[in-house]
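Here is one chain, start to finish.
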Amino acid sequence: SEVNLTPKFSFRPGIRVMFSSQFKTEQALSFSVKYSFTEDFDARFILGTSPRIPSYDELYSYFVDVNHNVQGNSELNTEKGTSAFIHLRKKHNFSKFKSESKLSAWLIDVSDRIELIIVNDAPLAYKFMNIDQYKSRGISYNNAFRYENFNANVGLTYAGMAKEMNSQETDNGFLYAMQFNLNGSYTFPKTKTTISAFYKYNGEMYQYVQQSDLNQNVTFIKGKRDAFSWLDASVKQSFLTNRLEATLGVRNLLNVVNVKSDIETTGAH
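Its structure:
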């Protein structure tokens, strides 16, 4: 439901109920508040719980052959989480130039988070398991621009996460990473041809990696993946009064072929 107390102030309580034949009924509760300072500037605050029932793949997948061993886990518990978000949004209109800026910050806390965990090093085997605690916090900024036939979007995210596994602290704090993205497009009015470019910078990323010694004692070390950039471009042309569209694109223009990393990937390879 949505309740408008004044033309500028409103709030919205909500509930979502999830039924399952395998798990007890779960409720996700949310409460959001919106305040409009002006017609073009508003703030939103959202607080909620976020349980998640394991998916079919997480429970029952079985992908085992000579090269792979990825298995589900029918003993998984439901994730339990709480989250808080705040968003500030501002629109700008200057004749033909228009833009919209959005600043967001968040806190997320999840217990019994489901992740794909390495359960055997040789041969390599993975299994979906619950980890004790997962926390995330961060801030992001996005700005969309438009001027006549030109569109652009720029975004910056700085976020950190912390994990606790098997009741052992895996870190002394949050591990942070930064991402930056920039994309733009221009449409030629006469031919309706659109050229686009998409750029993304992935900053250095850290993650705690589980290791076992010969006595099967589990320890955690901090792994690192180096920063790298990615650039794609494309040309799009419409035909037959926009009934047919053709796109020619090129990926990885910066020729990224190797990224140094000692972080185990949560996948088959």
